[in-house]
């Protein structure tokens, strides 16, 4: 979260989506990828 907060709900929504997508692609392992994150596979 930015120090001063978000300007509006749209800005907050984009930040949340970017965080989740980044986690999903770079950290979370997937069984169909031999338990590797998609970015590593």
Structure characterization notes:
44% of the residues lie in helices and 0% in strands. The protein has one domain. The radius of gyration is 14 Å and the shape is rod-shaped. The protein is mainly alpha-helical and 41 residues long. The protein has one helix spanning 9-26. The relative contact order is 0.13.
Order of helices and strands: H
Q: List segments where confidence is low: pLDDT < 50 over at least 5 consecutive residues.
A: none
Portion in beta strands: under 5%
- C-alpha-based Rg, rounded: 14 Å
Note the main sheet: none
Which secondary structure elements does this structure contain, and how are they paired or packed?
Blueprint: H1 9-26
Entry summary:
Helices cover 44% and strands 0% of the residues. With 41 residues, it is an all-alpha fold.
Features:
mainly alpha, 1 helix, 41 residues
